[in-house]
């Protein structure tokens, strides 16, 4: 039986030509009017050897340093440009099929249409969002996809106002007797972790943002005693600050921070509701995710799974953080936000289930290198994976691969395991 | 990627102690000579390795850095198994981190091998003006509890090398003594199979018979 599994896994590895068609077909199913561009992206996304070989570490590192220098808004704009305008080479590839791509941005238009209709079509929004949300629409789209803002356009603003006020009341009540009246242990842990949250990004070194994050985390933890605050939850709040602040001009930070904090609080609450047992005693959600990830990797790439086991490498040792922090630490914040576009678009628990496929795809990406490493080398490599140098395109390849694995293996635990006649 | 490096001994060491005392920076200072003011909190465990020479033997230290928060205790305590040494770190400028040392010792008693060599490490010794834990007090506590003791600064790197050197050397001495004792045991075919691993101060005592 295990031999069968091996052979099947090998079959998939050896014939990558099959994979794009599987994915393209799946994408084609859900994007009706946009299936052309989806397929286009899927195809280019699967051009793995090219995208990997052209990713030069030196330039990537330089780009990463440049990125940290940019202000919040500049980063956002750059991200938007990255999404809407591709490199000259890619443009040359695409102009044959889409001559008008440079003049109009069909993606922006589609989002504008869906988000401004009287009742947003959630299915349509999900389909569009799966392949990335333009920066200009991301905050609105995230609030809706999170289930925080309503689909009805008329009710949207009033609801947000009400929820923001609700948070402010809750916050005022929590901090009404000063910080000395707080749960000292909880407050201490939060205040030592906030300065260590995304410290490489100027936004999170801002004192106002740090105070805001402290309040948000405390309010959440105080309302969720079963888990309380667990290190790493601070990381999960960063994408929300990044996205919700990007809606506003940078010098408006003072006046908009309360709204951003409130939106961040409700969205983080929604997010954590879906993965709460990742943070309760003994973190059973993470343990389950790791078991599933291991069996998934064993079925897709049995040789890698055997090698890891042979070297004594356990998934708990390297993938615990991947699940605990939802890969926030393994990619840049900009890439993480792009990744979460897709997670939010996944109909069924993107953060709890789809994420496992993404983690498996991430590990499998380095299968070849890992096979040549011993225990210590594997551990050191996976603790600082090359994905920190990735751009959106790399993330999109990863998401497409994860989608493929999900299509093949989700809800089919004995896929390929059964004996053949 | 330096492939199969040769070593005579492989020792597993754990770094434990409260959140924010500087465990990760002690590790990065020792293994990579790096210190990061903007380091992030450790989630679960992190791993690093470095080899040193003792008595012309190569000792490879496999070091597991653990998250300080209590929620992670269930995960991190699994890493105590098989560890022959522990650096129990506190922050000399934060008294509560020193008060918690007794709780960490209990953790080790509950989950680690009873012969584990423990070194109490007062980190951030560069923060002289903020010192909250007197050196003598910690030194005395260590002596009373059979722990080695050192004060370090991962920031200015003082004593970091020495702390790891000392604990690894100590473990090496115990292990090589044990090897001698067990080989002596082996020449006596009739003797029982039980080999008692000497604790840190055993070799200074006489194994005197009773009554």
From TrEMBL, chain A:
Keyword field: GTPase activation
SUPFAM superfamilies for the chain: Ypt/Rab-GAP domain of gyp1p
GO molecular function: 14-3-3 protein binding; GTPase activator activity
Biased composition (Low complexity): 24-37, 73-84
GO cellular component, one term: Golgi apparatus
PROSITE patterns xref list: TBC_RABGAP
Region (Disordered): 23-42, 57-107
Domain Rab-GAP TBC: 132-347
PANTHER family: LD44506P, TBC1 DOMAIN FAMILY MEMBER GTPASE-ACTIVATING PROTEIN
Protein name: GTPase-activating protein
Organism expressing this protein natively: Coemansia erecta
UniProtKB/TrEMBL annotation, chain B:
UniProt entry keywords in alphabetical sequence: GTP-binding, Lipoprotein, Membrane, Nucleotide-binding, Prenylation
Top-level taxonomic group: Eukaryota
Keyword Transmembrane among record annotations: no
GO molecular function, one term: GTPase activity
SUPFAM superfamilies membership: P-loop containing nucleoside triphosphate hydrolases
Location in the cell: Endomembrane system
Record Pfam families: Ras
GO cellular component terms attached to this protein's record: cytoplasmic vesicle; endomembrane system
Bilayer topology term: Lipid-anchor
Alphabetized SMART domains for the sequence: RAB, RAN, RAS, RHO
Family designation: Belongs to the small GTPase superfamily. Rab family.
Designated name of the protein: Rab GTPase ypt31
Originating species: Coemansia erecta
Lineage: Eukaryota, Fungi, Fungi incertae sedis, Zoopagomycota, Kickxellomycotina
């Amino acid at each position: 039986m295990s031999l069968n599994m091996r052979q099947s896994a090998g079959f998939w590895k050896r014939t990558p030509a099959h994979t794009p068609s599987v994915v393209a077909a799946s994408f084609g199913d859900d994007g009706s009017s946009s299936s052309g561009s989806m397929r286009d992206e899927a195809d280019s996304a699967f051009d793995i050897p090219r995208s990997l070989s052209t990713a030069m570490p030196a330039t990537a590192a330089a780009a990463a340093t440049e990125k940290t220098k940019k202000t919040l808004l500049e980063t956002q704009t750059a991200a938007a440009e990255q999404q809407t305008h591709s490199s000259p080479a890619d443009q040359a590839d695409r102009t044959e099929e889409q001559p008008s791509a440079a003049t109009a941005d069909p993606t922006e238009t589609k989002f504008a249409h869906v988000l401004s209709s009287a009742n947003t079509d959630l299915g349509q929004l999900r389909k569009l969002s799966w392949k990335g949300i333009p920066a200009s629409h991301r905050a609105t789209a995230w609030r809706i996809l999170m289930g925080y803002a309503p689909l009805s356009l008329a009710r949207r603003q009033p609801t947000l106002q009400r929820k923001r006020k609700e948070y402010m009341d809750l916050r005022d009540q929590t901090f009404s007797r000063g910080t000395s009246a707080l749960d000292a242990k909880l407050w201490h842990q939060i205040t030592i972790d906030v300065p260590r949250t995304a410290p490489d990004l100027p936004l999170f070194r801002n004192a106002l943002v740090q105070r805001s994050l402290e309040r948000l985390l405390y309010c959440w933890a105080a309302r969720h005693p079963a888990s309380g605050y667990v290190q790493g939850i601070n990381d999960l709040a960063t994408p929300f600050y990044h996205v919700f602040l990007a809606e506003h001009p940078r010098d408006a930070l003072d006046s908009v921070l309360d709204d951003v904090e409130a939106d961040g609080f409700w969205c983080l609450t929604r997010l954590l509701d879906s993965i709460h047992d990742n943070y309760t005693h003994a973190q059973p959600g993470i343990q389950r995710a790791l078991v599933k990830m291991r069996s998934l990797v064993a079925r897709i790439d049995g040789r890698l799974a055997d090698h890891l086991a042979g070297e004594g490498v356990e998934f708990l040792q390297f993938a615990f953080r991947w699940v605990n922090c939802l890969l926030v630490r393994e990619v840049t914040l900009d890439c993480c936000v792009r990744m979460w576009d897709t997670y939010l678009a996944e109909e069924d628990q993107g953060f709890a289930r789809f994420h496992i496929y993404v983690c498996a795809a991430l590990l499998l990406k380095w299968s070849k290198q890992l096979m040549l490493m011993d225990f210590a080398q594997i551990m050191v490599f996976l603790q600082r994976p090359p994905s920190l140098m990735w751009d959106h395109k790399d993330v999109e390849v990863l998401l497409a691969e994860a989608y493929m694995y999900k299509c093949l293996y989700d809800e089919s635990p004995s896929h390929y395991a059964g004996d053949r006649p | 990627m330096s492939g199969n490096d040769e070593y005579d001994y492989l020792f597993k060491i754990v770094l434990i102690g409260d959140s924010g005392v500087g465990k990760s920076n002690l590790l990065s200072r020792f293994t990579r000579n790096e210190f990061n003011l903007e380091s992030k909190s450790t989630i679960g465990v992190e791993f690093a390795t470095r080899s040193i020479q003792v008595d012309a033997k190569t000792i490879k230290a496999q070091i597991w850095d653990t998250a300080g928060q209590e929620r992670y205790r269930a995960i991190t305590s699994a890493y105590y198994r098989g560890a022959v040494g522990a650096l129990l770190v506190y922050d000399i400028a934060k008294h509560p981190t020193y008060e918690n040392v007794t709780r960490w010792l209990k953790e080790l008693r509950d989950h680690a091998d009873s012969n584990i060599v423990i070194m109490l490490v007062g980190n951030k010794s560069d923060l002289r003006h903020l010192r909250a834990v007197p050196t003598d007090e910690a030194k005395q506590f260590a002596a009373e509890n059979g722990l080695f003791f050192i004060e370090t600064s991962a920031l200015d790197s003082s004593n970091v090398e020495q702390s790891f050197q000392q604990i690894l050397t100590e473990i090496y001495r115990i292990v090589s003594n044990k090897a001698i004792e067990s080989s002596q045991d082996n020449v006596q075919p009739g003797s029982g199979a039980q080999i008692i691993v000497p604790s840190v101060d055993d070799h200074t005592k006489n194994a005197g018979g009773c009554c």
